[in-house]
UniProtKB/TrEMBL annotation, chain A:
Protein name as annotated: EARP and GARP complex-interacting protein 1
Gene: EIPR1
Segments of this protein annotated with the region Disordered: 281-310
Composition skew (Basic and acidic residues), residue ranges: 294-303
Protein source organism: Mustela putorius furo
SUBUNIT field: Interacts with two multisubunit tethering complexes: EARP composed of VPS50, VPS51, VPS52 and VPS53 subunits and GARP complex composed of VPS51, VPS52, VPS53 and VPS54 subunits. Interacts with SNAP29.
Family: Belongs to the WD repeat EIPR1 family.
Automatic annotation (TrEMBL), chain B:
Family: Belongs to the VPS51 family.
Biased composition (Low complexity): 9-18
Source taxonomy: Eukaryota, Metazoa, Chordata, Craniata, Vertebrata
Described function: Involved in retrograde transport from early and late endosomes to the late Golgi. The GARP complex is required for the maintenance of protein retrieval from endosomes to the TGN, acid hydrolase sorting, lysosome function, endosomal cholesterol traffic and autophagy. Acts as component of the EARP complex that is involved in endocytic recycling.
Primary localisation category: Golgi
Biological processes per GO annotation: autophagy; brain morphogenesis; endocytic recycling; Golgi organization; Golgi vesicle transport; lysosomal transport; protein targeting; protein transport
Subunit structure: Component of the Golgi-associated retrograde protein (GARP) complex. Component of the endosome-associated retrograde protein (EARP) complex.
InterPro entries reported in the protein's UniProt record: Cullin_repeat-like_dom_sf, Vps51
GO CC term, one of those recorded: GARP complex
Disordered: region residues: 9-41, 55-76
Superkingdom classification of source: Eukaryota
Keyword annotations from UniProtKB, A to Z: Coiled coil, Endosome, Golgi apparatus, Lipid transport, Protein transport, Transport
Name of the protein described by the UniProt record: Vacuolar protein sorting-associated protein 51 homolog
Subcellular location(s) of the protein: Golgi apparatus, trans-Golgi network; Recycling endosome
Length: 359, 792
């Protein structure tokens, strides 16, 4: 994808593909029409960059039902395909429907998650209290319900969010409903762990540490971000309390998992440096070993400095609640955030920190 | 007598001369009364001069006159020629005439004085002459008699010499006979010795026996080569051995008490028994007795609860064990003083061991006392204990008993401090439980909320009285009359580190921690701690910060004059901690209450089907409930916290009507943009509006006043409403319902907050968001909205 960092976000009835040219600092966008309804969730296939799934509100007479479908975007708009983006003049493109994830029996879709590093054929969707595993067949033109599981308990249980773990060869999925986080095994569709009362209030989002297989981050309405070790769910490993309102999103950086991004309805985006629980050994052990072989042994103290978690930066560009944040998949130092008023902000990790991590 | 007589005569002469010499040309005109002392002094001066005393020369003379001046009429070196010459040369005729008449007058006066003196003393002169004559006669007679005495004495001496010469040889024989007699007596004593000893032993007069034996031993030793003496010695030894055995027997029986035992030991020592062995035996016996004492103490200690109180116990221990130990020690030191350091060391070890066991018992007893609340008894007991041990402590410095006792007292004092701290904590927790019950009870009865202020006052006063009681109880340890109060620990560390830091500061800290723990309780859903309790604790901490802490610490410092220099926690640090706690509690209160209202709003938004709702006729019940709850919270907070500052614009009492007016105006502001044709305009408008308004920090820290608290709660609630609304889709009537609800909230919530603009902003935002989430946004007429709200 070269220097470009495409970001896709949804607005009512439209999908914008935003290209950010890092070299020239130019942002360009393409608009895709999504005619079936307003989009509540969007996710792209890991295998085919032209394929994406959306959850959308289907306007019906007196009911709102959220459905999910898999789409293919026109070839020329695929990220990386360099077109002449004269978007202001060119008519909006239309998405090509591949298949619906039929949820008439299960209720509103809350989110769709693709199997990470898979071949783009397995999709999990969360519909009310059901977790559904779909098999996309015949180049995604047909979705077959492979297996499903559902929550049981009193009251109306509703999934709010779910993530597919990149570890364990894609057999684990984590979901959130109300204040509880659950882990599922996709092979048996059975629950493998459950964090009751993970947050004081509703859990809004989850993310897996891309490098440490048991680590999970969660955020919620209690303004906290918590980090969990799924092997021991009695206590969070770490808790952050930097936001002053609900935290809607939490994202690990894809390659440097000490960088954690959170977006909140206090209209702030916070980039934190969670050195103490990252996969990268603090103080660069490898380097130290090399150095100590070459030089005389240095006095220990310096490299033994305990890691300090810290807030790297608080981004206050948004005027209203921030509902989505994500890292660029192309450039690990780039991230975008989107707020209620439709403002998309693209930021870079501060240069000093970047060099500190790299060197 | 002669010399004394002469002195008297001399004095008389001087007295006679005095008046004459005293009146000279420099006579002062003041008269005889004034010059009397002067004259007397002069007379004394003359006398002294006569007797060669130098001081008279300076004392008796008027200042300024040269003693060697030959012209001084009264001087010793007066030369008439020089004087006359001087007069004649210096003075005019008239003055000469004057001085002549003056002189004549003085001479005449002197003459008459002399005459009177002689008359007056004439008789005395006569009698003196008579006396001297008589004395001459008497002396002559005495001389004769003395001569006779001398001759008589010579005769006596002669006779005496003759007598002693005749008695000489007889005297020598008598002396020899006396010597033989004494020797024979001694021999008789020796021969009688065995039988005497036996008798003594039979009679039990051991002391007498030992004395005899002592007297005879050396002689027997010396003459043991003579067979007869040898036999006596052997007999004696046998008897002595029997005696020693009997003594030992008596000693071992032990029942006869320490003084008698001491006597036995003394006798045995006199018999030349080995001291070391006796030492050991003595100590072993003493040990037996003291162990019996300890055992009886232990029995008192016993597992059965009705043990005697601690004072009685220490008394028992003090009189029984410590007294016994004292006796043993002093007897030992008296008896075995000759043993030197080794013996002393033995005694010290003995005392150390038994003392250790005694201390262990005392400690066990004291440990039983830990639970009780009464300090005075304990302190008195400790005092007795400590006082009692001072005697053996002084006697046996090496055994370190006094130190160990002090240590025990210190340890107990420390434990008491810990106990009191625990007690204070328990009292605090008890208060909290009471408050919880008080908070829970009236709610069941359905009455108005309990008097929070009253509860607060109760809690504060009860804690304060507990603290004071603890201080008073602990203060007993440092009372002047208590024997250990002047130990360095009690003068310094106990006061500063123990009482001030450990007890008071520790309690305040733990109070803060306990209070803070309510903030961190896992029951974030608000179930665990009643919000009113949070509020009350917050106020309590704040009160502590403002007044109580400094009061308590001052009280402490006054009661325990801290002489220790070790650093203590300053008042300011504690106050800061208390304030921080108060702030956290209040913030938590805001969160909890905000959450309660938020949940209500959220459920109301999430569970309703907004698309197919009917045209609004009423304000939804939830909103009324919200307003009611907010009012209740307002009342609750108002009980404990001051009003606080509002923005000036809303301090007006006629505000409500104005608010209605302004809110309707604001509705007018966004109303035109609801036409479906211009959805972007709304967006733009709200964006522009936001540009000029300040960012609202939802969970911002609160200040210590009612308005700030209420503002916090309302902010949280409305922000929740906003976010929930944004997640839903509204039909036309749904939007209108939101409009109505928001207007209603606006009508009633403005008066609780510091800045009503805030409520307006948030509610506008809610309505605007709802409008955005509505496919068919047709707003309701503001007037209709108002009517519905007024009716509701």
């Amino acid at each position: 994808m070269e220097d470009d960092a495409p970001v896709i976000y949804g607005l009512e009835f439209q999908i914008h593909i935003v290209d950010f040219d890092d070299e020239n600092n130019i942002i360009s966008k393409n608009v895709l029409l999504h005619q079936v309804g307003e989009i509540w969730h969007i996710s792209t296939s890991p295998a085919d960059k032209g394929v994406l799934a959306t959850c959308y509100n289907k306007p019906s007479d007196s009911k709102v039902l959220t459905c999910a479908a898999v789409w293919r975007m026109p070839k020329e708009l695929e990220p990386g395909g360099h077109e002449s983006p004269d978007d202001s003049t060119s008519p909006a493109h239309t998405l090509e429907l591949l298949c619906h994830l039929d949820n008439t029996a299960h209720g509103s879709m809350a989110c769709v998650a693709w199997e990470p590093a898979g071949d783009g054929k397995k999709v999990i969707s969360l519909a009310d209290s059901h977790i559904l595993l779909w098999d996309l067949q015949e180049s995604s033109s047909q979705a077959v319900l492979a297996s499903s599981a559902s929550l049981e308990g009193k009251g109306q249980l509703k999934f709010t969010s779910g993530r597919w773990s990149p570890h364990h060869t894609g057999t684990q999925v984590a979901t959130a409903n109300d204040t509880t986080i659950r882990g599922w095994d996709t092979r048996s569709m059975s629950q493998i762990y459950c964090i009751e009362n993970a947050h004081g209030q509703l859990v809004r989002d989850l993310d897996f540490n891309p490098n440490k297989q048991y680590y999970l981050a969660s955020c919620g309405d209690d303004c906290k971000v918590k980090f969990w070790d799924t092997r021991n769910v009695a206590e969070p490993v770490k808790t952050l309390e930097q936001h002053s309102h609900w935290v809607w999103n939490v994202r690990y950086n894809h390659s440097h998992d000490q960088l954690v991004l959170t977006g909140s309805s206090d209209s702030r985006v916070i980039l934190s440096n969670m050195v103490s629980i990252s996969s990268e050994p603090f103080g660069h052990l490898v380097d130290d070993d090399d150095l100590s072989d070459q030089e005389e042994r240095r006095p220990e103290g310096k490299s033994q400095e305990p890691p300090q978690d810290s807030v790297i930066a608080t981004y206050e560009e948004h005027e209203d609640s921030v509902y989505a944040v994500d890292w660029s998949s192309a450039d690990p130092w780039l991230f975008a955030s989107l707020s209620y008023d439709g403002r998309l902000v693209i930021n870079r990790v501060p240069r000093a920190l970047k060099y500190h991590i790299l060197l | 007598p002669a010399s004394r007589l002469w002195a008297a005569v001399g004095a008389m002469a001087a007295a006679a001369a005095g008046p004459g010499t005293g009146s000279g040309p420099g006579d002062s005109p003041e008269g005889p009364e004034a010059e009397a002392p002067e004259r007397r002094r002069k007379a004394h001066g003359m006398l002294k001069l006569y007797y060669g005393l130098s001081e008279g020369e300076t004392a008796g003379r008027p200042p300024g006159s040269d003693p060697l001046d030959p012209t001084d009429l009264n001087g010793a070196h007066f030369d008439p020629e020089v004087y006359l010459d001087k007069l004649r040369r210096e003075c005019p005729l008239a003055q000469l005439m004057d001085s002549e008449t003056d002189m004549v007058r003085q001479i005449r006066a002197l003459d008459s004085d002399m005459q009177t003196l002689v008359y007056e003393n004439y008789n005395k002169f006569i009698s003196a002459t008579d006396t001297i004559r008589k004395m001459k006669n008497d002396f002559r007679k005495m001389e004769d008699e003395m001569d006779r005495l001398a001759t008589n004495m010579a005769v006596i001496t002669d006779f005496s010499a003759r007598i002693s010469a005749t008695l000489q040889d007889r005297h020598e024989r008598i002396t020899k006979l006396a010597g033989v007699h004494a020797l024979l007596r001694k021999l008789q004593f020796l021969f009688e010795l065995p039988s005497r000893l036996t008798k003594c032993v039979e009679l039990g007069a051991y002391g007498q026996a030992v004395r005899y034996q002592g007297r005879a031993r050396a002689v027997l030793q010396q003459y043991q080569h003579l067979p007869s003496f040898r036999a006596i010695q052997d007999d004696c030894q046998v008897i002595t051995a029997r005696l020693a055995q009997q003594l030992r027997q008596r000693f071992r029986e032990g029942g006869s008490g320490a003084p008698e035992q001491a006597e036995c030991v003394e006798l045995l020592l006199a018999l030349g028994e080995p001291a070391e062995e006796l030492c050991d035996e003595f100590l072993a016996h003493a040990r037996g007795r003291l162990e019996a004492e300890l055992q009886s103490l232990e029995a008192e200690l016993g597992p059965s609860p009705p043990a005697p109180d601690v004072l009685e116990f220490t008394d028992l221990g003090g009189s029984g064990f410590v007294g016994g130990l004292c006796q043993v020690a002093s007897a030992y030191q008296e008896l075995f003083a000759a043993q030197g350091p080794a013996g002393a060391e033995k005694l010290a070890a003995f005392a150390r061991e038994l003392g250790g066991r005694y201390f262990a018992l005392v400690e066990r007893r004291l440990a039983q006392e830990q639970g009780s609340g009464d300090n005075s008894l304990l302190v008195r007991a400790l005092d007795r204990f400590h006082r009692r041990l001072r005697a053996p402590g002084a006697l046996l410095a090496a055994a370190g008993l006094a130190e160990a006792a002090t240590e025990i007292v210190e340890r107990v004092a420390r434990e008491r401090l810990g106990h009191h701290l625990q007690g204070l904590r328990a009292a605090f927790l008890g208060c909290l439980t009471d408050v919880r019950q008080a908070l829970a009870a009236p709610r069941l009865a359905g009455k108005e909320g309990p008097g929070l202020a009253e509860l607060l006052a109760n809690v504060a006063s009860s804690i304060l009285s507990h603290i004071k009681a603890s201080l008073a109880a602990v203060h007993l340890f440092t009372a002047k009359e208590v024997s250990f109060s002047n130990k360095p620990y009690f003068r310094g560390e106990f006061c500063s580190q123990g009482v001030r830091e450990g007890l008071i500061v520790g309690f305040i800290r733990s109070m803060c921690q306990t209070a803070q723990s309510f903030c961190d309780s896992p029951g974030e859903k608000g179930g665990a701690t009643p919000p009113a309790l949070l509020l009350l604790l917050s106020r309590l901490c704040l009160d502590y910060e403002t007044a109580t802490i400094s009061y308590i610490l001052t009280l402490t410092d006054e009661q325990f004059l801290v002489q220790d220099q070790s650093p203590v926690t300053p008042v300011s640090t504690l106050c800061a901690e208390a304030r921080e706690t108060a702030r956290r509690l209040l913030t938590h209160y805001v969160k909890v209450q905000g959450l309660v209202i938020s949940q209500m709003l959220r459920k109301s938004v999430e569970t309703r089907d907004w698309l197919s709702t009917l045209e609004p006729r009423n304000v939804r019940a939830v909103m009324k409930r919200v307003v009611e709850d907010t009012t209740a919270i307002d009342v609750q907070v108002g009980l404990l916290y001051e009003e606080g500052v509002r923005k000036a614009q809303s301090s007006d009492s006629s505000k409500r009507t104005f608010s209605v007016y302004s809110s309707s105006r604001q509705q007018g502001r966004y109303a035109p943009s609801y036409t479906p044709s211009a959805p972007m305009d709304t967006n733009l408008l709200s964006n522009i509006q936001k540009l000029f308004s300040e960012r609202i920090d939802v969970f911002s820290p609160v200040e210590f006043n009612k308005v700030s608290v209420l503002t916090g709660i309302i902010k949280i609630s409305l922000k929740t409403l906003l976010e929930c609304v944004r997640l839903r889709t509204f039909g036309r009537f749904g939007l209108q319902q939101v409009q109505v609800d928001c207007h209603f909230l606006q009508l009633y919530l403005w008066r609780f907050v510091a800045d009503e603009e805030l409520v307006h902003l948030l509610l506008d935002e809610v309505v605007a968001s709802a409008a955005l989430r509505c496919p068919d946004p047709v707003p309701m007429e503001p007037s209709v909205v108002e009517v519905i709200c007024e009716r509701g």
